[in-house]
């Protein structure tokens, strides 16, 4: 019996995944390093420094830790500049009505994002109003596929992980949700890879999986 749903942010509640890609691509272009969409997809759900390692895979020379720290900071500044233009209008149309309906049906909702910029995104988009708990990159030590972020989200909801579902667009995120002992729901890239127990094409399909009291659902 699922009582809580833990959502990834980038690529699930809002398409900031594309902004991550553009910010990394800008850095890669400046350095003259090839960076493909496939590499961009592998950065999904992965920490900032691990993403940088993926970006530098085809670099012609090694970089020092100091250089890597500066690159990560440069990317983050470019990414945050893009985030500063976000508004509630950037949230896909089906997201807020679905979150609202799920809460009306009695489900508790949490964020489980590895991003240290999640607070800024929630604030600019108003998404924070629809969440009962927020676990983000500022409250964990190990990033996805480690289960820590989903376990933290469940704890903040006051629910055992077995009573929670984890929804993520990253294969690493689905692995993290599974390792946490949650029901896994893939969407976007992770659904293309059939990584979840359920693989959705639209966010509002959640309403078919999680029915209201007395209603029959797909679970
Ligand atoms: P930041 P999520 C993840 O967020 C992103 O998918 C991943 O691309 C990013 O590197 C990571 O957050 C860290 O983000 O640099 O903003 O702290 O998908 O877990 O919501």
Write the layout of secondary structure elements.
Layout: E1 4-7, H1 17-31, H2 37-42, H3 48-55, H4 65-83, H5 95-104, E2 108-112, H6 118-125, E3 133-135, H7 148-157, E4 164-168, H8 171-179, E5 183-187, H9 189-192, E6 198-200, H10 206-209
Parallel strand pairs: 1-2, 1-4, 2-3, 4-5, 5-6
Helix pairs in contact: 1-4
The structure holds 1,6-di-O-phosphono-beta-D-glucopyranose.
Describe the structure.
Helix 1 packs across helix 4 (65-83). A 6-stranded parallel sheet has the order 3-2-1-4-5-6, sandwiched between helices. The termini are close together. It has helices at residues 17-31, 37-42, 48-55, 65-83, 95-104, 118-125, 148-157, 171-179, 189-192, 206-209; strands spanning 4-7, 108-112, 133-135, 164-168, 183-187, 198-200. The chain has 10 helices and 6 strands, in the order E-H-H-H-H-H-E-H-E-H-E-H-E-H-E-H. Strand 5, helix 9 (189-192) and strand 6 form a beta-alpha-beta unit. By secondary structure, it is α/β, with parallel strands linked by helices. Bound molecules: 1,6-di-O-phosphono-beta-D-glucopyranose (B16). Residues 8-11, 20, 43-48, 51, 76, 113-117, 137, 170 line the site of 1,6-di-O-phosphono-beta-D-glucopyranose.
What would a concise description of this structure say?
The chain is of the alpha/beta class and 219 residues long. Helix content is 42%, strand content 11%. The chain is built from ten helices and six strands; from the N terminus they run E-H-H-H-H-H-E-H-E-H-E-H-E-H-E-H.
């Amino acid at each position: 019996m699922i009582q809580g749903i833990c959502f990834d942010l980038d690529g699930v509640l809002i398409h900031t995944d594309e902004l991550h890609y553009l910010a990394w691509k800008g850095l890669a272009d400046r350095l003259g390093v090839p960076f493909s969409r496939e590499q961009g997809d592998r950065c999904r759900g992965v920490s900032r420094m691990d993403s940088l390692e993926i970006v530098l895979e085809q670099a012609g020379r090694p970089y020092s830790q100091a250089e890597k720290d500066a690159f990560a900071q440069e990317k983050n500044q470019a990414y945050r500049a893009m985030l500063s233009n976000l508004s509630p209008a950037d949230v896909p149309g089906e997201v807020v009505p679905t979150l609202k309906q799920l809460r009306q049906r009695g489900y508790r909702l949490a964020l489980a994002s590895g991003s240290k910029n999640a607070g800024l995104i929630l604030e600019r988009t108003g998404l924070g109003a629809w969440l009962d708990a927020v676990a983000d990159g500022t409250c964990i030590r190990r990033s996805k596929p480690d289960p820590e972020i989903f376990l933290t989200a469940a704890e903040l909801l006051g629910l055992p992980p077995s009573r929670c579902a984890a929804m993520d667009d990253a294969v690493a995120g689905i692995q993290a949700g599974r390792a946490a002992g949650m029901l896994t729901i893939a969407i976007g890239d992770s659904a293309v890879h059939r990584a979840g127990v359920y693989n959705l094409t639209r966010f509002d399909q959640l309403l078919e999986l999680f029915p209201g009291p007395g209603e029959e659902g797909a679970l």
